[in-house]
Design a protein that fits this description.
The longest helix is centred in the first third of the chain and has 13 residues, at 26-38. The chain is an alpha/beta fold. It has six helices and five strands, in the order H-E-H-E-H-E-H-E-H-E-H. The two termini are 24 Å apart. Helices cover 45% and strands 17% of the residues. Helix 2 links the parallel strand 1 and strand 2 (42-46). It has one domain: Response regulator (Rossmann fold, 3-Layer(aba) Sandwich). Helix 3 runs parallel beside helix 4 (80-90).
């Protein structure tokens, strides 16, 4: 049995990887946060576009890092696309993924053109687990 990537990082005294989750539904956000923490991630949870963009700026300002972004498409103050644009500007090359309950051909084209992983709600946790464990974690 292979050790989880988290166990390997802990053995080498490396910090836990950090992922930002942007989800306005408090139940889904809390469940995702707990699920990701169970998989060895530190999670920054934002509930709106503004809160997410403030966090991105704060993390960038203190010259810290993020290892990934998982953002909901439909947020109360804008779409997740806006968060992705700001995130990619501050953290180029860091993987991003979007989740949505909507079936929208325009969104499908937008994420495909940017090579962004798209997760449909209800989330396929096996697929999500594959994505999070494929993140190129930086020490």
């Amino acid at each position: 049995m292979q050790p989880r990537p988290t166990a390997v990082r802990q053995l080498r005294n490396q910090p836990q990887p950090c992922i930002m989750v942007v989800e306005d539904d408090p139940d889904i956000g809390t469940l995702l946060k707990r699920w990701l923490e169970m998989h060895g991630f530190t999670v920054m949870l934002a509930t709106s576009t503004k809160e997410a963009m403030d966090l991105v700026q704060d993390v960038s300002f203190i010259e810290s890092k993020l290892d990934g972004l998982l953002v909901d498409y439909q947020l109360p103050d804008a779409t997740g696309c806006r968060v992705i644009q700001e995130f990619v500007h501050e953290f180029p090359g860091v993987p991003v993924a979007m989740m949505t309950a909507f079936d929208d051909i325009t969104l499908e084209g937008w994420v495909r053109a940017r090579r962004i992983e798209l997760f449909r709600k209800p989330l396929d946790l096996k697929r999500l687990e594959q994505w999070v464990h494929s993140l190129p974690v930086k020490a």
